[in-house]
Input
Amino acid sequence: KYESHASDGDLQASIYIKTTVFRWVITALAPAIVTPFADTASNADKSLLDGVRAIFIAEIWRVPLLAILDIIGNFRRHFLGPRAPDQRRMNLHFQGAHYNLGERYTEMTKILFYTFFLRRPFPHWLFLCLCWFGRFVLE
Output
């Protein structure tokens, strides 16, 4: 650990702030800054609108898909758990996934920021974002 915090809440807040700023810049601001203005709304394959559409679709589906698949958890429960030498070690493989509140809120605010940042060219993303929040984030 490189930082000391008085409580777990302070640690989660620190993780949230740093991760959120980084993800907002990488996801929304960097493509807008790097793309020349003439290519913003062009019909070319590398226009900003095509790139942000691909990023948005990938971000909308990545989090729920990884949560549903839970590759590491399934591997531990179905492969490592039954092969454990004793009951205590087997129980360790059947624990639930570790959730970091800073990470979960960062994913939520990243999609929300991305949606509001690009609401002019893609107004229907507001509806998709609300459906995504209601289905996968707020459960």
About this structure: The helical segments are 8-34, 48-69, 71-80, 87-93, 101-117, 125-137. DSSP finds six helices and no strands in the chain. The mean pLDDT is 83. The two ends are 31 Å apart (CA to CA).
